[in-house]
Amino acid sequence: MLRKMFSRPERKTMYWYELLRQMYQIGVGSIGIVAVISIFIGAVTAVQFAYQLRDSFVPEYYIGFIVRSSMLIELAPTFSCLVLAGKVGSNIASELGSMRISEQIDALKIMGVNTTSYLVAPKIFAAVFIVPFLIILSAALGISGGMAASLANGTPFAVFAKGLQSWFEPFNVVMMLIKSVVFGFLLTSIACYHGFYVQGGSLEVGKASTRAVVQGSISILVADYLIAQLLTT
């Protein structure tokens, strides 16, 4: 499927509009749920780490350091893409599956359209481009949520800010972006495969959507481990 999608477009404007539409659906359509999850993940991380610091000799500003590092390295890319695997992956698999069983894909083939290139490529390219921006937003909102929770629990802003600025490693941002690109590719390509090649009726479309979410989530977790192993050793 991935090999077939790399072909010369019949009409470049048609593919360009489809790419923009997919970027809007995947990116703008997912901002709300990514924002809510990120804010509360950051807040929970701050609260739970502050709880671990009780009756210890660890400085309080470590809360900001842990929230920042956790969001950049792990929580923002992994949690956000797991959510996107459920939201975007199921939507893509259902959309392509519905087109398959209603013979819309066959009609496009008869019209001479390279269906794999037109229906699959824009989704994957859009996700690879737009998901990193969602992850950057997720990290920023997660850190903001952690800051808000810390301030609500009595941690001074200057203390939390000191932790944010301590021992910053720029490579952590690079690792976050690498993960976001890989995860975006995995969750869309797996969903496209299950939706594009579904056979049967509406029941099979539902099963294909479920398989896309499950396999996409598992692939993200496996890729998360492999990337961490490769980039941190």
Short key terms for the protein model shown above:
233 residues; 9 helices; 82% helix; mainly alpha
Give a short synopsis of this structure:
With 233 residues, the chain is mostly helical. The chain has helices at residues 12-27, 31-53, 62-101, 104-110, 115-119, 121-152, 157-165, 170-196, 202-232. Helices cover 82% and strands 0% of the residues.
Calculate Rg over CA atoms. 21 Å
Mean pLDDT: 88
Elements, N to C (H/E): HHHHHHHHH
Question: Biggest sheet, open or closed, and with what strands and sense?
Answer: none
Distance between the termini: 34 Å
Q: In terms of structural class, how would the helical and strand content be classed?
A: mainly alpha
| Unreliable segments of 5+ consecutive residues | none
Beta-strand segment tally: 0
Task: Please estimate the helix content.
Answer: over 70%
Q: How many separate domains make up the residues?
A: 1
**Estimated share of beta-strand residues:** under 5%
- Outline, from the CA principal axes? elongated
Q: How is the quaternary structure best described?
A: single chain
Please report the number of helical segments. Answer: 9
Q: What does the model show?
A:
The protein is mostly helical and 233 residues long. The protein has one domain (12-232). The protein contains 9 helices and no strands. The longest helix has 40 residues, at 62-101. The model has no long low-confidence stretch (mean pLDDT 88).
